[in-house]
Amino acid sequence: MLKTALKPQWIAGLVLALVVSAVFVLLGKWQMDNSASAPPPLTQTETPVELTEHFAPEKPMYGTEADQVVTMTGSFVPDTDVFIHPRLHGGQDGTEGYWVVSAFQVDGAPNSEVIPVVRGWTDSTAETDPAPQGDLHITGRLLPAEGPAPEGVQHTADGTVLANLASSELINLWDLRSYAGYVAAFDVVATGGSGSPGSGQEVGAKAEGGELEPVIVGPQPQETTYNWMNIFYAIEWVVFAGFAIFLWWRFLRDDYLRSQDEDELDRQWAEEWKAAELERRRTEALEAKRKAIEEYEQYYGASTAPTSAQQTQQTQQTQENQ
């Protein structure tokens, strides 16, 4: 088979098969690289960006958009305070209490959408601060909204209590267009202008004398997700690469076996031709001898020349005498 493989056409075929396999392997590597969705680096998520440039309202939030520290300007919508219970404060072993959430009108939102803002934490619905009014600048972490809880909405004397911070429930309560997510506020600063009273001061949960305690949400654990469809595609490309080499080998093998069959047929034909040719020549020799004897008898006559039968009998007697 090596002799067949060293033919120019099969060397060229091998080069082509290797090139095709290399292309398939590169496509498989590309699919494998695209199968992993790494979360944004902390240096990116911890650098504040404008909410309106980072996330659009009324659309699902992807993993690359969540957990980002954002900034926004606007004002709180009056009478939109709700409580989210239960929420721990101070870690896993902390005190169970309530998040205080209010609707924040975002400047620059396409259709004047609001976004729920966690203003702080309290251990009792009776101990809370009203949402600060006026133009504000908020810095906080953008997080995906939660799903509605079976408990639904509870109306108490101190306000409305929800089990989860679900945008769908808040939209029904506020009757306002909203972002599909919420912001846990770190800083709430008044921005009424350089000459306005209190401009540039902290007016949120970090302000002195308030009832609320700040809610600081750290970056979420970094996890890499995998798209199994891309992984399957990568495996398919590797299989295709191996199949290209297999096809070259299969065609080479077929050519080798075909040449072996042709050589065997040539050998058989040569043997048959030799046997037929030998028989033909033998027949021609006997026929020539017969004609020669007939011509001899006709020329010298039957009396002077022995016939074929007589020659045979004389030959036998000579052999017996010897």
TrEMBL record:
Residues 302-322 are annotated as: Disordered. It is a multi-pass membrane protein. PROSITE patterns: SURF1. Pfam families: SURF1. Residues 310-322 have a biased composition (Low complexity). The chain crosses the membrane at residues 12-32, 228-249. It comes from the Bacteria. Coiled coil: none annotated. Keywords: Cell membrane, Membrane, Transmembrane, Transmembrane helix. The keyword Transmembrane helix applies. It is found in: Cell membrane. InterPro entries: Surf1/Shy1. Belongs to the SURF1 family. This is SURF1-like protein. It comes from Citricoccus parietis.
